[in-house]
Design brief:
Layout: E1 3-6, E2 12-15, E3 22-29, E4 40-47, E5 51-52, E6 59-67, E7 71-74, E8 81-83, E9 90-93, E10 99-102, E11 107-115, E12 119-128, E13 131-136, E14 140-145, E15 149-153, E16 156-160, E17 165-169, E18 174-179, E19 184-193
Antiparallel strand pairs: 1-17, 2-3, 3-4, 4-11, 5-10, 6-9, 6-11, 7-8, 7-10, 12-19, 13-18, 14-17, 14-19, 15-16, 15-18
């Protein structure tokens, strides 16, 4: 099972599709795919003002709050949805006309996008005092460290710093064990191929 460490310093920053800000890409597939050609994409963005989300036809999006007080999503069929740092990752269609209202100042979000009909995602927030384990059943998995930690996979171990990521290809049935000296927080994103 190939694994790749993606250091925070190497993440690529680019403009939002709608020009309203910038996004930091952690990983995407196929490698080097543009903003309209990816099968899946994991990125972070700073949202500094209220406004609309970029629309992506045929894409599903899962959003999590990494920093800040949070935001309220408007324009969804179920009505407004409030997202905060402790809220579970929230999925919705990226081709819906959705806008965001900040609760109290800028936020940083984790944005997972998958092409509908090709992939679906399972995004989990992992939080513990010293250690936590998670099992993967996916085509590709990406672990984003919010706090520095050591990740053990069988006999292999990798140290991750703040916002470093670990990509695992074909991690079916693999268990990740995260440990740190204090509080631990990370996001595990599993991309599962359709069919």
């Amino acid at each position: 099972m190939p694994l790749t460490v993606l250091r925070a310093a190497d993440h690529r920053t680019m403009p939002w599709k709608n020009g309203g800000g910038s996004t930091t890409e952690i990983a995407a597939a196929p490698d080097g795919a543009g903003i309209d050609a990816f099968d899946w994409r994991v990125s972070m963005a700073v949202v500094a003002a209220d406004g609309p989300f970029s629309e992506f036809p045929g894409i599903d999006r899962t959003l999590s709050i990494l920093d800040g007080s949070g935001l309220i999503l408007k324009g969804l069929d179920q009505g407004p949805v409030r997202l905060e740092r402790t809220t579970e990752p929230f999925g919705f269609p990226a081709d819906a006309a959705v806008s965001a209202a900040l609760i109290d100042g800028p936020i940083t979000d984790l944005n997972v996008m998958v092409r509908r009909g090709r992939f679906h995602d399972r995004t989990r927030r992992l939080s513990a005092s010293r250690s936590v384990s998670a099992r993967c059943q996916a085509t590709v998995a990406l672990l984003l460290a919010e706090t520095p930690c050591r990740v053990a996979i069988g006999s292999d171990a990798v140290d991750l710093g703040h916002r470093d990521a670990l990509r695992l290809d074909r991690p079916d049935g693999v268990t990740l064990t995260l440990s740190s000296d204090g509080s631990l927080e990370a996001y595990l994103v599993e991309m599962v191929a359709a069919g």
